[in-house]
Write a structure and sequence with these properties.
Helix content is about 35%, strand content about 25%. It is an alpha/beta fold. It folds into three domains: about 120 residues, Periplasmic binding protein-like II (D-Maltodextrin-Binding Protein, domain 2, 3-Layer(aba) Sandwich); about 80 residues, 3-Layer(aba) Sandwich (D-Maltodextrin-Binding Protein, domain 2), CATH 3.40.190; about 90 residues, Porphobilinogen deaminase, C-terminal domain (Double Stranded RNA Binding Domain), CATH 3.30.160. β6, α5 and β7 form a beta-alpha-beta unit. The relative contact order is 0.15.
Length: about 300
Amino acid sequence: MNTPQLIIATRESPLALWQANWVKARLLETHPSLSIELLGMTTQADRMLDISLSTVGGKGLFVKELEEALLDKRADIAVHSMKDVPMELPSGLCIPIVCEREDPRDAFVSNEFSSITALPSGAVVGTSSLRRQSQLLSLRPDLTIVHLRGNVNTRLAKLDRGEYAAIILAAAGLKRLGLQERIRAFLSIEESLPAAGQGILGIECREADEQTLQLIAVLKDSPSMACITAERAMCLRIGGGCQAPVAAFADITENKLTLRGLVARIDGSLILRAQESGTLDQAEQIGIKVANELLSQGAEDILSCLRKA
């Protein structure tokens, strides 16, 4: 009998490799006879580190080559940080599985200062995210926000060289890489509402690949799937791409799902917020309701100005 095989497409950054190997280990716990290989790939976003994502087309550039490997059957699954995945997938592909969410918050990282409030006026803060930038400037309009790209270790090295007073990173990535000691403070969801899918790993595969769908089913986390469904439904309805200053975060308390949504001007001078709650099976409808409320407040005006810029 042939040994079942699975090939995982992954970026080659330390965090992406950690995520792919974590999925590999979880699958082998349930399917010990499975043969699993990693197909490491360098994406267009990895090759264009000197240009902001909003300029070159957004975070979808992190997944394009991986999806091409799925479509031409060089790989069976791809492991993604869900905050990097465009709201619409290529025909023939699906994300049937998301894993349990890690800490969704943004993290304040600095060698000199203990929090955002402790930063002096004019301090240089690094981030690649317009979502983070807008919320930071809403809290501290006196800060200087400077573009920051690269993998986690590259960003930390730039901080350590003194190029920034502080940088903002996803707490999930730092924790997964064992770098939680670098976190000086966590930003609350009131201070910095997370990106849709932040902290969630998703597994993408071909819709028609029944064998792979059965193999990966053991990794599904239903509460996280409900949250990501609401978050992505909001973003899809509102039309905010990954590079826009849009945030969506759902959490579950006593079987009630609450989604908070946000659309902001890049300079933080205007932030629109909306919130809806309901049952887990209403996740998609909740996302659409939050989007419609934001649109009624003028979200389209903000996003259309960005698209014209």
